[in-house]
Task: structure prediction
Amino acid sequence: MRPTAKAIAIDIATQHGITLDDMKARTRGRLVDVARSKAYKEIRTRLHWPYQQIGDFFGGRSHAAVISGIKSLENRMDDPAEMAVFMRQRLNYLSGQSAMFDIARRLNLKSQDAIVLAILIRNAPRPLTLAGISELYDHAWQSINTAEKFICESTVKSAISKIRAAVKAQGLPVPIDTIKPSGYVLSDEFALWVRENLSLSVQM
Result:
């Protein structure tokens, strides 16, 4: 039985650690671009869809965008440097996704709070201000979802409070110390717990 366009696209998205919604969205990023272009080519080759039909399926893109994506993919596959960059990004993406899910699962945190904690863990023992965490959040979110998402300082402060409460509820060491005026830093005791229990590295 011939596969559907949706099945082909989901299969390729899964191989690259993203979702079909990522491929249909207007967000850009090398990882999503390559996966989307692979899906363009696979659907064109296997289902013989017109370029415009493929574009419509992927969020209303033009036939020119589909043709350009396929040509770009072919050029990238011929360029070792391009493929090296793509593979590094894919590994970083999957690593970030795994780390965030590990934190969220182990500490029963929502994804937004888990990302804030992951930022503090990754940057330990350097203290971070609320503004600094907000800026790093955008980069961290892109490594997981290939989309921009910025949170304000008050939201970061709220996330820190939720992290402290969640960790306390499990009887673990205080996770975050407040250092005025520098901001927030992972506590030494919690850093040790992270090294022993989570798939994240901590500088000590």
The longest helix spans residues 80-107. Residues 108-197 form a domain with the Arc Repressor Mutant, subunit A fold (CATH 1.10.10.10). The chain has a mean pLDDT of 81.
